[in-house]
Give the backbone structure.
Amino acid sequence: MDFPVWYVPFLTAPMLIPLIAIPHVIVAQFAVGGGFLLADMVSVAHRHNYRRLLDRLKRFARFFILITVVFGAVTGVGIWWTIGLTSPRATQTLIRIFVFGWASEWVAFAIELLSAFAFYYGWDRLHPEDHVRTGWLYAISAWVSLVLITGITSFMLTSGTWRMGDTFFHAFLNPSFIPQTLIRTGGSFAIASLFVGLFISFHGEHEWTHWIIRRTSKWALGGMVLILIGGIWYFLVLPDHAMLNIMRAPILVVMVFLNFGATIVVIFALAFGLAQGSRWITPPAAFLLFLAGVIAMGAGEFIREGARKPYLIDGILFSPGVFVEEVNSLNRKGLIGQTAWLQFYLQSQLDKPYEDVLRNGTEDERARVGAGLFMYHCSGCHAFLGYNGLQPIVKPWNEPFLDDALKNLHLANPAMPPWLGTAQERHALVKFLMLPREKGGLQ
Amino acid sequence: MTGPLSPTEVLTSLPAPVWFLLSIKAVGFYLHMVFMHIWLAGIPTALFFRKTYPDISKRLLDVLPFVVAFGINAGIVPLLFIQVLFANAFYTATILQAWFWLSVIPLLLVGYYGLYLSRLERWVRFSLPVSFITFIGIGVIFASALTLMTHPDSWAQIFRKTTVFGAVHGFYLALSKTAVLRFFLTAGMAFQTLALFLMIDKEGFFGSKKLVHINRKIFFTMYTGGTLLFLGAGFLYARESALQLSQLLYQGARFSFLLSFAGFIYLVIRPGRLQVLIALIAHGVHLGVQVFARQVVQYRLLSSTSSISTWPLRMDWQGFFFFIATFLIGVIMIIWLWRMWTRSVTS
């Protein structure tokens, strides 16, 4: 609790992450899959000297570069921006554990950029063999980038037997690393194939359209096999609390159905594409299928994020940015006592020390302390009014019930962390949450 | 393996020696700065020369999208290592002005696509000014955030102004006098770097002959303008941070600047292969000293909030060797790409 909290009303600050992360994941996986598809098709075109196919692919490559190099790169940095603002302690921890993993990813990203530019801008200039090699270099460096990032994000979901101070590879090669790598690799082939279909649908029939669709469908179906293997493996290694969340939380149940449903639609479409070639490709059909792919991918990311609760890093760091080891100390000494910024705020707001207010302050004074506690304990996941809003949840409750719910937070709901503070602090939070809003609440 | 540690022990230990982390951060920043100079001065130059010197404008628009791509890439390194070394100060400063800091991402997206549109000669009258505004905005936000980071004494005041029940709303831009001066100092250096880049390009060193007919006086004027801006802002900025730099570093900065200036003048008067090399080295040293001085100032200003010199070293050997291996493979790949590219040019 070393940092001030950024409060975003209605939405909550962490909900800004998916706004950037989901588009990024889709484009980043498109960048990986598209790289393999392009390298493969360019190899065939050069081998048989299919000039018209090369021309066709060049048009796609230009579009590909504009999407991946700009949008993919900027939103990738954007995720870092948002996690640093919304969960600084988790970001600091991940960076401390994986600093050289991230540095290695930077190298892979640099090669990805250089080879992407060389591949596109050297289209009519490089020797065919070199051109093909550059394409494969791009595809492989983009995939290495995917693997490195997956090692870090999968650690957030399944830290396994890693404990503070353990080694880099112990953290990197965590239980869900391989299944998530398989899923993301497969997903990248599928989404790239659907994107190719969408691109082609807007560019009219061409002598190579049929061949391109059949070729990319093969890649994508191979990708779907990886997704199936990775998906089963993924569910087998999920921690108990994550499985429980998936079964309990209605939104996650919906997301699982969306994910499975959209995946099945995509598999059938790809199989159909393989059999029928480009005959089914029309802009609306291609768009709907691409949308199905995006839904499957977005839902998958949402499940991963949602299932992780109450942790930001599985078994290590709770959502409010509190380490598991710190819980006992917080319960004994209080959250405020270990949160410098909150102490500073309360000093400027109260006429007496916050300890006195907690012991024998007026209801209003205690509610004011409770408001600060809400910011540092709850606002990481809950808005007051809005996304996951607490006011509508607690409205029908009375004080004893709310106090009991907070006391047994983690027992009442496995997606919640335990109460992180003293009993007096809890009472203060109850006072704040029970304030009659219709009378204006805290001013 | 040393057994379980407390989170605080992990977060306040270093994965590599301080000198290594600071050096890699400085090298990354150096690379980032060179690219950043070219876009910071290049976008306004491309915009304002569009009618008067369209060849310079077009040439700049040819290279700017690549410059931005590699500049973003190089920027990852200092950003990563600043979070290892100065996490407390960095996160606090950016959270206090959260919305502005976050707006860097949409601004960059808009500005970057604007550059591509301008390069493709689509809606240039609109896209290039938009890129200009967005990149200036990004520069100002960066200057504000990184200046605020090294001024923890002003955090409490901003917190008081922007607090919502103990949290902050993040609608605050800490555009202090120091931040403005830093921005102009960088802008001055940027015009120097751009003038040198264009001068070398004019001599055909980047394989293009598009600027051969351009009068060298233009680049001289550009360089002189940048120098005046650099000196003016630098003088005022040095007064602000006078206590933070040693006499040796002051003299080094002065000497390297004069060296760079002389190198450029020599190149303008007698263009040639040797002169290009001399000017490049001199300017490289000038920028290097600036980067070094910046690291020293940052380290000294932050030593009050972050006592990294006392943090224990818990070397992450696995991660370190993994990075070194990836880096070496990367260097080999870059050399291979470079050789392949030059071979294609000659054939």
